[in-house]
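Quiz preparation item.
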């Protein structure tokens, strides 16, 4: 199977080389890797240049955007710009963050998943982050069948079916919901332990705290599912303020009549799916 990788990078001089080296070490190499230098003001571009000269699989794309590190729109916009450089000759495509280290057999295993289970449309591993004592610990506060946005692999069929990535907060949830709407499955492999070099959310702008609730509104969750999901998030993250922020963001989005990310029929499916998962966990 052939695959392409797109790596959005904004001021990643401290981590990018480790990420690109982990791509070079893959037992199954990608056909092309587009590294999008997204308005960086540090040495990110020079690091990209080193890898472009090192291997023909790497390509650089410089782009200008906001300097704010906001979740959702910024990274997806950079991804979409990188996507424009690629053709359709691939079996799956990968959105990869610039601050992760992949196991050497990561994409070989992803191929094994896609080939062995044709219904799977999105696959990936799990995030591990380093503790103060140097241990790499699992950090996956979401459901076990959720693939983190830092390393999403989509089959071409699935990616086309969901209409690409939404450039908004919640993109890495709505993609999986829409994948299931179109009959695709999500697969996570706990053998694939991805090292995340920067703790989740540390680089995000403070204005981002309300975006999760807004995303729940735009995904047509409805108020009750938003309450349940926000309570669960607050408990798992041990941050009571997360519940308040989510609800404020949701109600603000509803007041402003924000544009929905999904159609009415997709929203109906999403709510039914969410309720089914909630009931399953309660039984």
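Solution:
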């Amino acid at each position: 199977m052939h695959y392409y990788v797109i790596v959005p990078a904004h001021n990643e001089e401290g981590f990018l080389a480790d990420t690109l080296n982990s791509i070079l070490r893959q037992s199954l190499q990608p056909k092309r890797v587009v590294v999008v230098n997204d308005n960086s003001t540090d040495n990110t571009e020079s690091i990209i240049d080193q890898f472009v000269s090192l291997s023909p699989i790497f390509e650089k794309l410089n782009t200008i955007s906001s300097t704010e590190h906001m979740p959702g729109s910024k990274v997806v916009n950079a991804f979409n710009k990188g996507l424009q450089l690629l053709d359709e000759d691939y079996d799956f495509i990968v959105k990869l963050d610039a601050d992760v280290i992949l196991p050497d057999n990561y994409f070989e295993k992803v191929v094994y998943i896609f080939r062995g289970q044709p219904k799977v449309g999105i696959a990936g591993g799990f995030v591990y982050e380093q503790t103060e004592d140097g241990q790499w610990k699992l950090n996956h506060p979401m459901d076990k069948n959720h693939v983190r946005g830092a390393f999403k692999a989509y089959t071409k069929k699935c990616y086309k079916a969901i209409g690409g990535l939404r450039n908004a907060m919640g993109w890495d949830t709505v993609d999986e919901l829409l994948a299931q709407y179109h009959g695709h499955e999500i697969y996570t492999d706990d053998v694939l332990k991805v090292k995340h070099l920067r703790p989740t959310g540390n680089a995000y702008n403070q204005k981002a705290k309300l975006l999760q609730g807004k995303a729940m509104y735009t995904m047509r969750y409805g108020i009750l599912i938003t309450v349940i999901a926000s309570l669960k998030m607050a408990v798992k993250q041990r941050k009571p303020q997360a519940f308040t922020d989510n609800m404020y963001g949701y109600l603000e989005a509803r007041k402003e009549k924000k544009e929905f990310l999904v159609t009415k029929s997709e929203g109906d499916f999403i709510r039914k799916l969410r309720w089914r998962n909630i009931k399953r966990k309660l039984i």
